[in-house]
Structures are given as C-alpha cells and as structure tokens.
Design a protein that fits this description.
Layout (H helix, E strand, L loop, with lengths): L25 H16 L4 E3 L9 E4 L11 E11 L3 E8 L2 E11 L1 E7 L5 E7 H14 L10 H21 L2
Antiparallel strand pairs: 1-2, 2-3, 3-6, 4-5, 6-7
Length: about 170
C-alpha cells in the first residue's frame, strides 16, 4: 500500500490513450491497491492509472458519501456499454487539476462493463455522482480531462494556473 505521486496537468502522460490489460497479474493487484491508497489519501473519489504515470486501462473509484461505509471499486478495461439520453450536470474536479472545479454535462446514467481483479466480467448501472465519476475516470484512459469539455478560454485559464502551480512546487522542492 504505497501512496504514488499524482501527475499534474499539463503532462503528456495524461493525454495518452492507455493500453488494455491482457491479464490480471499480481502486479496489477498491487497497482490497484496503491491506487486506492493514493485516492483515499488525496482524498478523491476516483483515480485512473495514467494519473500515476501508468498507461494501463485501470481505474479505482468510491463515490460513497462521507457518512456511508467505503465501497471501493476496481475496474480493469472498463467500458461504457449503454448511456441514458437524460443528461446531468455536476461540478467536477480532478486530482490532476487540484482546486479547479467546473460544471460538466454527461449522460445521467451509464452501464459499465469491466473485469474485476479475479478476472470476472462485471456489469453494473451507475447513476448520480457514481455515473459522473466512472465516466470521468474512463475518460482518463483515453487521455481526456474534464477541462476538455470546457470552452477553450476557460480551459486555457485553468492550464495556465496549473503551469504556475507546478513551477511553484518545483521551486519548493528545490
Ligand atoms: Ni480526474
């Protein structure tokens, strides 16, 4: 259970399309475990492998409310196989774009198929915050960030702030 450093936008590794995992090895299980630890530590409700610099189609999420028991999900090679016509707007954020939030419209409900860590196919419908979260994380596997849904000017503004943040952090690190 290791906390892995999270890449901050802009970073070319966040823009890559991640590769499907051919099989579920112990290495993948360790990676998923580290990702959950990193996500809860941040804290966040989702994390995709590219955010820690690993170009695999692997995400973790837990969008339960604070007063509910944790319900971590690990998804290998997740795919949205059905989406509702009804759409929903949520204010999204991202661990790779700290302290920046913006409204994003997405399908309100989605059906997702994935492999669990035992290699079994899982399929489940998601609604509400879970639906937004799982779509946001799957986007990461295709090199898509929530700011890519914003108007160019707003996106550039956020990107400039992140460049500045990274410069400050690099300076602090000496
Ligand atoms: Ni994100």
């Amino acid at each position: 259970m290791t906390i892995r450093p999270i890449l901050i936008h802009p970073d070319p590794r966040l823009k890559k399309v991640a590769g499907a995992l051919p099989d579920i090895s112990d290495e993948v299980r360790v990676l998923a475990d580290d990702m959950l630890t990193t996500m809860y530590d941040a804290p966040g409700i989702g994390l995709a492998a590219p955010q820690i610099g690993v170009s695999h189609r692997l995400i973790v999420l837990d969008a339960t409310q604070k007063d509910e028991a944790p319900a971590p999900l690990v998804m290998v090679n997740p795919e949205v196989i059905l989406e509702s016509d009804e759409r929903n707007v949520y204010e999204e954020g991202c661990l790779s774009i700290p302290e920046q939030y913006a409204d994003v419209e997405r399908p309100a409900e989605v059906r997702v198929r994935w492999l669990d860590l035992n290699g079994s196919v899982q399929e489940r419908d998601f609604a509400g915050l879970w639906a937004t979260c799982v779509q946001h994380e799957i986007d990461h596997l295709d090199g898509v960030l929530f700011i890519d849904y914003l108007k160019p000017l707003k996106r550039q503004l956020i990107t400039r702030k992140m460049v500045k943040l990274k410069r400050e952090r690099a300076r602090e690190a000496g």
